[in-house]
Amino acid sequence: MNDRQRFRAQMHYESVDRCPIWDFGFWDETLDLWREQGMPADADPDEYFGMDAQWRSIPIATRLLPAFDEQLIEDRGETEVVRDGEGVVVHRRKWMRTIPHYLDWTLKDRASWREHFVPRLDADTPGRIPDDFAQRCREARDADRDYPLGIAAGSMYGVLRNWMGLENISVLVYDDPDLFEEMTDTLGRLYVTVLSRALAIAKDNGVTFDYASMWEDMCYSHGPLLGPDMVERYMVAHYVHITELLREYGVDVVVLDCDGCIDQLMPLWLGAGVNCMFPVEVGTWKADPIAYRQQYGKNLLMMGGFDKRVLAGTKDAISAEVRRLTPLVEEGGFIPFCDHRVPADVPLDNYVHYLQEARRVWGKGANLHPMPAGSA
Q1: pLDDT tens profile 73-95
Q2: Which residues contact 358 (CB under 8 A, 6 or more apart)?
Q3: Taking CA 179 as the corner, what is the angle to CA 175 and CA 182, rounded to the nearest 5 degrees?
Q4: Who has the most CB within 10 Å: 74, 138, 202, 328?
């Protein structure tokens, strides 16, 4: 089987030769330390570790268009204060990719929404569908590609939180629910309109996407940042419209990226046709993909779910966690990997051990891209 066939079979509970061997990614600091521990300085991590071909996508523009012009507000030497492309004022490092410190937001109220954001969310703005979209579809026709191909399907809460800030958006839901509803309605219409055009072009050029991806990041360690009642009231209908459109075009794996404790929102997402949870972060709340499968059955697809903290422990603990997840891997509907980017407290030797165990057990002792000599 090739990587596309393997992904599709695993996500549809079909017979598969072995599980895909993937990763989520790595902190920059992790890679710096691993290079000190023996990883070649010029190595691409996926190539070095011999990962299978992970998912790709053909981009469409479903966010602010045009973006805000980035504006330097203050140069502080190694750091800077800028207004970024989402209209957010951030204090950030210049050279190292880390989470910035958020200082201010352009989106504050109904007036700023109407003036600065509504015009940037017009589905008819040129460039929503890139000029080379049809050509890229022709290059990725179903019969020709050996990798999973996806399309972005939007974000109902995550982008609003980015544009307005967590505290401000949390208060807005109660202080001006009509404005919050206007925001989600605007986003929902934008996604459906742009997606319908892109999917039609893809179909005309021989492409059925293997998955669609959504991004929310609307949970933390104790549950959702927006109550389930609010999600149901303002967002579920838009999820339904998006997933029904996707399924009209044969896209029945809808992946939602949300960190944190997602337990209270999963029933709403699943009921709305969003069926794959990613990265199933284990966290201090002890999320468990095995327990989720027992609760939701085969309606639920998952990716991730391997506790990153285990990777910093003993090799015996790593091997035990690989074995524990194996029945779920073999059942299907689950692609295991670290439940977020691998942090810097994980030694290179531990990660290599994890990968060897994953290949041996989940990969049935085979891999199309073995690690280079000297990395074992």
Answers
A1: 999 999 999 999 999 999 999 87
A2: 21, 322, 336
A3: 155
A4: 202
